[in-house]
């Protein structure tokens, strides 16, 4: 059998694994084999007449390096297994098992561009539809009413697997997928349905790195991540969903009538292999998905030419597929944002207005709010002795958590020790403690991520913890009591950007504001195989849902929102949908004040992006900043990518040459935000943009600028008159420093195009010096 046939038949993977014991025959096949992504210079089309398909062609390239003829490849099973993936869409190349000596020989071939060593990526790890106005009441209804809840839209989720048979994936009432769908669902018919239409596992590359781990037959995961993200994006309605009896309501995804296609590329604690991600994206863009939801990434920003999410994302938007990607969980340090490519929607995470309140009433009568997912019924709230942990304060040493010290008492513990908060509670319960107060680490600020503890407990912020400690120091016999108030909605101090949410500026394209948008990503209730914690769920549905936090949780919110917007506006490009989301975002909280970061200071644009997503406003944005896949090519030239690198990114488009086109600077990419650098004389920058009318045919927009006194912004023209839908208008924004002595820091503002029906808000970020990649030099950008 030819190599290409074996590669294309994923059902033969187990057979190939058995054959790996055969010795290799390649002359260079004596070193250590490692996985490499091989970028190829010549498009397959140049040699199409000689090979039956792209896999056959890649096999011939591999044979030319391994010193063996194709006939030998056919005969030697070990050699056949050297080719891991042959990519058709997202990159011009293949992944294979090679030695260093073979890579050196390959470098001399005229078809070779680059060999990239293996790399592992990782996951960025109810009430929100109501909070976001998706199910709005009244004569106008919510976005669901305008889009039929995303019916017919297919959301592709790349993650760590799924919990088969979960109620969030019930297909009852969901129509069949559209005829364009070419994917498959590897579960049986009792699991695969009109909701979960695709489920596959991609493990060809990862299995080589983790010897002894079987190739999974089905994309099942004991972890919670993939089930949680999939059900957040497009989960079905599940009445009575709750977490340990809290947050009881109807759980649903953002697009409850959309279809889900799950591509498993991450495995337990093994991470997510780059080549498996590329293979999944290669198939997903060809199988008919409309939206891609990527709650994974790399903390170290890589070139767009070699990053699987950037590569796959470009091919996706070229095919009209919207891509939402997690911004990362490496905050609050600046310049940590992941998934920075401008064709991706990069998502930050913030709190919702829901809390699971567990208060601490001190002996002096002061009552301080905390949170806990374990809200015991019938708990007797009476004053009890309040004591410290006798070791290092973290309640991580079971030797001192004895009945003599903690029995019948409420123990105050600092987070951050060797035990998780769940393990602290378990150890204290064994010691006979009556309760626990966990003081969150200072870096988390005002954001609490409550757990289902093994005993009555309250998790409090660091600042609240210091008040508790001050009280304990003020009296010889400190006492406290725990008061459980259940689920409380309507917190006016929300949203707040989480400390973990990665911050800009972008390292790869500093002239593009990243992250783009903030969504709900803290304490999100969604489906899981099994909730975390040591307590027995109080009801059957409590065993199916849990809260998780991360930009991983924020991302599927935006993916689902994009799905319903795409349903409502099927002709919009991915850039138009992104523009609608960004220009209608809200930079203010429920009090009407600027959204805060975790530390209480106003969140800047590098933390928040344009603001918190407002789906109903995004339905009718008035104007959009549009871009096609081709528009990014001169921009990539401006970033000084080589022709070979750009052709790798834009594959399978025909090759281009930057020398034959006008370069577009970062500031002039038609993006729905503006970033300008006033770091050199004459300290003036002109920025051009084009907006397209997607609102009323005849409409007038007037420019309104809000910026600090350190800069001046003028817009030419100041008024835009549209006479028809889809008419485009160009304008120029001139940004000038008003104080040339300023040599660092940033200034923030906005340009709003205002009509009687719409406010099209474009964030403006001005930096007085170039950002650099070293985090230590961007400390002034922290908030």
UniProtKB/TrEMBL annotation:
Signal peptide (from-to): 1-26
The PA domain, residue ranges: 385-468
InterPro entries (UniProt xref): PA_domain, Peptidase_S8/S53_dom, Peptidase_S8/S53_dom_sf, Peptidase_S8_Asp-AS, Peptidase_S8_subtilisin-rel, Peptidases_S8_3, S8pro/Inhibitor_I9, S8pro/Inhibitor_I9_sf
One GO cellular component, as annotated: extracellular region
GO MF, one example: serine-type endopeptidase activity
Domain named Subtilisin-like protease fibronectin type-III: residues: 668-766
GO biological process, one term: proteolysis
Descriptive protein name: Subtilisin-like protease SBT1.2
Native source organism of the sequence: Miscanthus lutarioriparius
Lineage, opening ranks: Eukaryota, Viridiplantae, Streptophyta, Embryophyta, Tracheophyta
């Amino acid at each position: 059998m030819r190599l290409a046939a074996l590669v294309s038949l994923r059902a033969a993977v187990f057979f190939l694994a058995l054959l790996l014991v055969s010795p290799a025959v390649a002359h260079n096949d004596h070193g250590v084999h490692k996985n490499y992504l091989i970028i190829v210079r010549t498009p397959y089309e140049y040699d199409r007449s000689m090979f039956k398909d792209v896999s056959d062609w890649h096999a011939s390239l591999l044979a030319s390096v391994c010193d063996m003829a194709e006939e030998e490849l056919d005969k030697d099973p070990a050699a056949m297994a050297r080719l891991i993936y042959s990519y058709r869409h997202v990159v011009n190349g293949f992944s294979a098992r090679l030695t260093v000596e073979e890579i050196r020989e390959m470098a001399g071939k005229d078809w070779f561009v680059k060999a990239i060593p293996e790399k592992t990526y990782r996951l960025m790890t109810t009430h929100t539809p109501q909070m976001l106005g998706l199910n709005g009441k009244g004569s106008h209804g919510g976005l669901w009413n305008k889009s039929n809840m995303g019916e017919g839209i297919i959301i592709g989720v790349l993650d760590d697997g799924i919990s088969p048979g979960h109620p969030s994936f019930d297909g009852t009432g969901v129509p069949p997928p559209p005829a364009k769908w070419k994917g498959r669902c590897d579960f049986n018919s009792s699991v695969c349905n009109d909701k979960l239409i695709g489920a596959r596992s991609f493990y060809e590359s990862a299995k080589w790195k983790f010897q002894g781990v079987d190739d999974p037959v089905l994309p099942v995961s004991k972890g919670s991540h993939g089930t949680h993200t999939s059900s957040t994006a497009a989960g079905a309605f599940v009445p009575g969903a709750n977490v340990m009896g809290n947050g009881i309501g109807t759980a649903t995804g953002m697009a409850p009538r959309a279809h889900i296609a799950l591509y498993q590329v991450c495995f337990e604690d093994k991470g997510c292999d780059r080549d498996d991600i590329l293979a999944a994206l290669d198939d997903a863009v060809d199988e008919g998905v409309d939206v891609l939801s990527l709650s994974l990434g790399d903390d170290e920003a890589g070139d767009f030419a070699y990053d699987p999410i950037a590569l796959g994302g470009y091919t996706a938007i070229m095919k009209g597929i919207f891509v939402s990607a997690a911004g990362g969980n490496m905050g609050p340090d600046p310049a940590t944002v992941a998934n920075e490519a401008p064709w991706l929607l990069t998502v930050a995470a913030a709190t919702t207005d829901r809390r699971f309140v567990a208060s601490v009433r001190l002996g002096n009568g002061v009552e301080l709010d905390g949170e806990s997912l374990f809200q015991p019924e019938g708990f007797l709230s009476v004053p009890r002795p309040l004591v410290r942990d006798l070791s290092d304060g973290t309640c991580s040493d079971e030797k001192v958590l004895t009945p003599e010290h903690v029995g019948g008492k409420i123990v105050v513990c600092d987070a951050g020790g060797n035990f998780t908060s769940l393990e602290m509670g378990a150890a204290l319960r064994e010691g006979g403690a009556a309760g626990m107060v966990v003081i969150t680490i200072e870096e988390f600020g005002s954001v609490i991520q409550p757990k289902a503890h093994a005993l009555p407990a309250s998790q409090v912020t660091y600042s609240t913890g210091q008040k508790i400690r001050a009280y304990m120091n003020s009296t010889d016999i400190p006492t406290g009591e725990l008061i459980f108030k259940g689920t409380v909605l309507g917190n006016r101090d929300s949203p707040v950007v989480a400390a973990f949410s990665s911050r800009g500026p972008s390292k790869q394209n500093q002239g593009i504001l990243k992250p783009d948008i903030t969504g709900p990503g803290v304490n999100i209730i969604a489906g899981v195989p099994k909730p975390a914690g040591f307590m027995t769920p109080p009801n059957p549905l409590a065993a199916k849902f849990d809260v998780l936090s991360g930009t991983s949780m924020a991302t599927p919110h935006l993916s689902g929102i994009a799905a319903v917007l795409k349903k409502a506006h099927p002709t919009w490009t991915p850039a138009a949908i992104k523009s609608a989301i960004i220009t209608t975002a809200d930079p203010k909280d429920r009090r009407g004040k600027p959204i805060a970061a975790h530390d209480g200071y106003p969140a800047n644009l590098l933390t928040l992006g344009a603001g918190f997503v407002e789906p109903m406003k995004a339905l009718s944005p008035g104007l959009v900043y549009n871009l096609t896949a081709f528009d990014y090519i001169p921009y990539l030239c401006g970033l000084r990518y080589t022709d070979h690198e750009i052709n790798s990114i834009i594959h399978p488009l025909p090759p281009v040459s930057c020398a034959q086109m006008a370069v577009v600077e970062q500031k002039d990419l038609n993006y729905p935000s503006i970033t300008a650098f006033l770091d050199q004389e004459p300290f003036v920058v002109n920025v051009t943009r084009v907006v397209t009318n997607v609102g009323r045919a005849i409409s007038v927009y007037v420019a309104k600028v809000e910026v600090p006194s350190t800069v001046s912004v003028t817009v030419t023209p100041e008024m835009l008159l549209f006479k028809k839908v889809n008419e485009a208008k160009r304008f120029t924004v001139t940004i000038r420093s008003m104080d040339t002595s300023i040599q660092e820091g940033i200034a923030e503002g906005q340009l709003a195009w205002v009509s009687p029906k719409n406010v099209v808000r474009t964030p403006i970020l001005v930096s007085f010096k170039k950002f650099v990649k070293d985090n230590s030099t961007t400390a002034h950008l922290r908030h």
